[in-house]
Amino acid sequence: MYFSIQLLPHAISEMIAQIGCTRQVTLADRYGLMAAIFYLDHLSEDERFSIDRLLRSICRGRIQVVDEISALLH
């Protein structure tokens, strides 16, 4: 079985902006990032750079990874 993954236009930039506001990566964000990794060949250089910055921020402890589905529910 073969699945096709399609990202919504501006999905990465909106996700990065939301994470920047909440300082949290939710479960939904993690699934979005996973989809972006599979779609890596089609991402712009800015989107790849933003994902790299996000991952560095997580490693440095500036962004918290949480088990909530969405930060918007709070």
Give the number of DSSP strands.
2
Pick out the low-confidence regions.
none
Helix and strand sequence:
HEHHE
Major β-sheet profile: 2 strands, parallel
Q: Structural class of the secondary elements? A: mainly alpha
Shape: globular
Count the DSSP helices: 3
Q: How are the strands of the biggest sheet laid out side by side?
A: 1-2
End-to-end separation: 37 Å
What is the arithmetic mean of pLDDT? Answer: 87
CA radius of gyration is 12 Å
Would you kindly provide a written description of the structure presented here, covering whatever features stand out?
53% of the residues lie in helices and 5% in strands. By secondary structure, it is mainly alpha-helical. It has a two-stranded parallel ribbon with strand order 1-2.
Please write out the topology:
Elements (H helix, E strand, L loop, with lengths): L10 H12 L1 E2 L1 H12 L6 H15 L4 E2 L9
Parallel strand pairs: 1-2
Tags for this model:
74 residues; mainly alpha; two-stranded parallel ribbon
